[in-house]
Amino acid sequence: MAISFSSLWHSQYPHVSLLSIYFGQSAETSDFIVDCLTAWWHDHQHNYQDIDEWVIDLDGGAATRSNRRQFIKRMVELSQAINLKIRLIYYPPYHSKYNPIERCWAALEKYWNGAILDSVEAAVHWAANMTWKGISPIVHLIETTYEKGITVLSQELEQYQLKWQRSETLPKWDITIVPV
After folding, report:
1. What is the chain's Cα-based Rg?
2. Number of separate helices (H) and strands (E) present in the chain
3. At how many degrees (to 10) do helices 120-129 and 100-111 cross?
4. What beta strand segments (E) does the chain contain?
5. Residue 92: pLDDT above 90?
6. Are strands 53-58 and 85-90 parallel, antiparallel or unpaired?
7. How far apart are the first and last CA of the chain?
């Protein structure tokens, strides 16, 4: 059994305290991450009608690295589809303790500590019944099978990199995607 995990937390809007956890039964790929973001937006965009930019905190995981071609391509496509700027802020290595998503994951691991997770359903059940910062998560099970090792050729990536703007001061850690 393989479980991919992605969670989304938004605390800037006090009237909307959402914690969404996405489990997948396939590999954690760039496509899995972007599909989870897309699904979350479709479910919750009505709560955020006044925003013009997403700011997403990320770790340096293989699926979301800023040099991962498939991730670049999919995030640009997402930005264009939802017509929002997307700013990606990466935590440096060994700084996961500052990432709220990592703290949520730690709370989930502590909650299910000692539980026998012998099925995807068991993991989803435990996640649905935990709380973090007093909030119960909305748990989703993604059943799509994601292909690993998708190759995006340099020529194909050129059109996407035009919308992928790296910060002048922190080019590895701060990237803005412009939809236009």
Report:
1. 17
2. 5, 7
3. 110
4. 4-10, 18-24, 53-58, 85-90, 138-142, 164-166, 174-177
5. no
6. parallel
7. 41
DSSP for residue 168: S
Environment class of 22 (CB within 10 Å of its CB; exposed 0-12, middle 13-18, buried 19+) = buried
Would the CA dihedral through 91, 13, 31, 100 be positive or negative?
positive
C-alpha pair distances (Å), 92 with each of 23, 41, 54, 99, 142? 25, 26, 20, 10, 29
As a whole number of angstroms, the distance between CA 32 and CA 38 comes to 10
* Short-list 81, 71, 86, CA closest to 34: 71
Which of these, 11, 2, 39, lies nearest to 139 by C-alpha position? 39
The Cβ-side half-sphere exposure at 48, using a 13 Å CA radius, reads 21
With contact defined as beta carbons under 8 Å apart, do 37 and 8 qualify?
Answer: yes
Q: Which two tokens stand for residue 178?
A: 């412009």
* Residue given tokens 């939809």 in the structure block: 179
Question: Which structural domain range is residue 34 located in?
Answer: 4-177
Tens of pLDDT, residues 12-51: 555 455 788 899 888 899 999 999 999 999 988 988 888 8
Q: How many domains does the chain have?
A: 1
Strand 18-24 and strand 138-142: the pairing is parallel
pTM (predicted TM-score): 0.87
